[in-house]
Amino acid sequence: MKKKLKYTILIVALLVVAYNSVYFKKLTEVKASVSKDFDAKSYATKYFNTKLIPALSKAVEINQLTVLLQKDKEKTFDKYSHALGIGNIRFFLVKGEGEITAINENDVSVLAKTDSSERKVQIATEFVFGNAIRDASGLIDINEFKNTMDFNNVSAELNKIVRSKVIPPFKANAKKGDKVQFFGAIELNREYPDLENIEVIPVSLKLINH
């Protein structure tokens, strides 16, 4: 009987410890943990206009990039790519010029050309998400932010700028056969870079024959 009572007390004690170790926060409390003095929209707008747009002058031409990757993948990733975490996912700031070959539901197909090479790429026009725009330039320092929520909100706001300011005027006027100059960000896996299915998240789009 005493042994049974001992086990019962032990089980009750464990349940009390477990109960006190697990707690839930209301969604409003989680949202409140975001820095009240941080304005992600203002930060993203300033970064886009004063840092990212000027950085486009250093973007690598997309055909040149793929040639370099085929010649020396590791050196090319080290020189041109950026990422704010460990792992194989890396981001590049790229540019190109070419002919629109198709206008699809979610993207625009472009045959990017130089004097010596050409490559088909897709310019995203519908699904603009993720951290490519934020991270591709390498100009944002994660240590600037008090928490990851603020940091991730910057990505969301940058993507909103592209979806609302960059893509709509392009889609409204672009036609198959038009020439386009594009700047943007791409994501590649360092271990297994897929150079046959490159998607550009646009930062700047200009129809050069309009």
Describe the structure.
The chain is globular, with a radius of gyration of 24 Å. It is of the alpha+beta class and 210 residues long. The model is unreliable at 1-7 and 16-33 (pLDDT under 50). Strands 3-4-5-7-6 form a 5-stranded mixed beta barrel. It has helices spanning 2-21, 27-32, 40-55, 62-71, 73-80, 132-135, 148-173; strands at residues 60-61, 81-82, 89-103, 107-113, 118-124, 179-189, 199-207. It has a single domain, classed as OB fold (Dihydrolipoamide Acetyltransferase, E2P) (Beta Barrel). The longest helix has 26 residues, at 148-173.
Q: Average pLDDT, to the nearest integer?
A: 87
Low-pLDDT stretches: 1-7, 16-33
Q: What is the C-alpha radius of gyration, as a whole number of Å?
A: 24 Å
Biggest sheet details: 5 strands, mixed, barrel
Number of helices: 7
The H-and-E topology, N to C, reads as HHHEHHEEEEHHEE
Structural class: alpha+beta
Helical amount: 40-55%
Q: How many domain modules?
A: 1
The count of strands amounts to 7
Could you give the order of strands across the largest sheet? 3-4-5-7-6
CATH architecture: Beta Barrel
Q: Report the portion of residues in β strands.
A: 25-35%
Head-to-tail CA distance between termini:
92 Å
